[in-house]
Design goal:
Elements: H1 2-5, H2 9-25
C-alpha cells in the first residue's frame, strides 16, 4: 500500500513522542 510506504510528518512526530515517553517510563 502506498499509504504505508509514505511517512507523514505528524506520524513521525507522534512516534518520536512515544519514544521519549517510553524512555521516561524506563
Amino acid at each position: 500500500m502506498t499509504c504505508k510506504v509514505r511517512i507523514h510528518p505528524a506520524t513521525t512526530a507522534f512516534e518520536l513522542t512515544n519514544n521519549l515517553v517510553s524512555n521516561l517510563a524506563n
